[in-house]
Amino acid sequence: MGSGQSKPSSATYEGPKKESIKQHLAILGLQGAGKSTVVKQFTKTLGEEEISPRDMNLVKADILKAVLSMTKFVLNHVIESLNAEQQESVIFERMYDELCEREDGLPDSSSQPLSTALDVVDSIVNMISSIWHQHAMKKIGEDEKKLMQLQETVPSGEKEQLFLSGRSFFKRIKEVMAENYSLSHDDYTHTRTWTRECKEYKLAHKSIPGKFAIRDVGGDELNRHHWSKSIEGSLCCMFIVSLSEYTKKSESTGEAKFREVKRILWQLADGEIVGATGCRPKIILILNKQDLFRKMLTSKLYPLHKSCEVFKMRSPQGEDESDDDYVGRCEKDVTDYFLSMPASLKEKYRSDSTLVKPTISGHHLSCATDQELFKNIIGRVVSALREILNKGLNDVGL
Ligand SMILES: Nc1nc2c(ncn2[C@@H]2O[C@H](COP(=O)(O)OP(=O)(O)O)[C@@H](O)[C@H]2O)c(=O)[nH]1
Ligand SMILES: [Mg+2]
């Protein structure tokens, strides 16, 4: 706990009326944008103890799942790039089958903890380690650009999140899975867990009176019906966008992923996805995964104008332009893109000047896995909440 913050149990209340008000901050965005990672940073800074020993085992199960998924994907790539007659190819194929067989022996993590099958876990961890020691695998494992390229070819959004998480752990899998290893906060934020339903975590800050909570929710289409529940009664909503998805197409419509994300963001701003109160939520836009965005742009493999139809008119990086200048220009382009109202909405408001236009209240570029950087955003969001709250309390005469 840093200075200026207090545990929920000892939160300083300013009066009985304010105390009875329950405040929420809703975190929304599409699958894999980084919502749960943002929630982990908030609970670390303003919340209660984050990982209990029981949770720790569940998190380790997710780490193993991610590393397994990533290892199989890379192994498969190596097999496909070898000549089928080569002896190495036969060996790798045998390894792949063996790994799948051992994986089948793992307990179903939702009903049985990993600790009930420690020998299976050990044998899988040992096998993963030895696979990554094979020359062809080791070469790929040490080549960040190649891993980035491979990640771009993962066909499903969820498997891609597992690949990203697997990249953080595959070299340390033995250490992390050891029984006596306690996961660090950094490990925790690099873990991918698929969020289902709407979950609430208690927070406290001396400038926010009464109860205060953050709500995490799944971003995939099956879980999106929970969004209105999550917004209901919320002070404000943080909408998380993954910048690294600029190369992607929507899995449901085939359009540029950024177009889909922008449409959903503005539907939210316009009150189309509302809670029972029918209010438009105040939105703080978080342009996340800035670290990956920068790496992708400076790798020269995915220039913005070639990788996303939305920016095809943007000028490419000039020979004299530094990487920092280029990235800065791209970040500005992307920020402006999301902040500008879509043409269809502009049309709606042009035809009736009595309607109040929707707005985005604030925006930040972020890297949710970086605790130090993210603390800064938490501070700014808390200030914004305080402002909203003071205004709201004044409105009702408190
Ligand atoms: N490199 C990087 N990874 C991130 C960042 N934010 C989230 N992630 C990772 O992206 C994956 C998906 O994040 P998660 O919070 O589960 O996404 P959600 O579906 O929106 O809840 C996880 O493996 C996170 O560790 C970021 O800013 N940079
Ligand atoms: Mg999540």
Note down, in words, how this protein is organized.
The protein is an alpha/beta fold. The protein has 2 domains: 8-50 and 196-395, P-loop containing nucleotide triphosphate hydrolases (Rossmann fold); 53-182. It contains 17 helices and 6 strands. The chain has a 6-stranded mixed beta sheet with strand order 2-3-1-4-5-6, with helices on both faces. Helix 3 (53-81) packs antiparallel against helix 4 and helix 3 (53-81) runs parallel beside helix 5 (118-133). The radius of gyration is 23 Å and the shape is globular. The model is unreliable at 1-21 (pLDDT under 50). The protein binds guanosine-5'-diphosphate and magnesium ion. The site of magnesium ion (MG) has 4 residues, from helix 2. Guanosine-5'-diphosphate binds next to helix 2, helix 8 and helix 13.
Task: Provide a brief overview of the structure.
The protein is of the alpha/beta class and 398 residues long. It contains 17 helices and 6 strands.
Please render the helix and strand layout as text:
Layout: H1 16-19, E1 22-29, H2 35-46, H3 53-81, H4 87-104, H5 118-133, H6 135-141, H7 144-152, H8 157-169, H9 173-177, H10 185-189, E2 198-205, E3 208-217, H11 227-231, E4 236-242, H12 257-269, E5 283-288, H13 290-298, H14 304-307, H15 323-339, H16 343-350, E6 362-365, H17 371-395
Helix pairs in contact: 2-17, 3-4, 3-5, 3-8, 4-5
Low-confidence stretches: 1-21
What number is the mean pLDDT? 89
Q: Rg to the nearest angstrom?
A: 23 Å
Q: Which term fits the overall shape?
A: globular
| Secondary-structure content class | alpha/beta
How can the largest sheet be summarized?
6 strands, mixed
Assembly state: single chain
Q: Assign the CATH topology of the largest domain.
A: Rossmann fold
Name of the CATH class of the largest domain: Alpha Beta
CATH architecture level-2 label of the largest domain: 3-Layer(aba) Sandwich
Strand order, main sheet: write it out: 2-3-1-4-5-6
What's the total helix number? 17
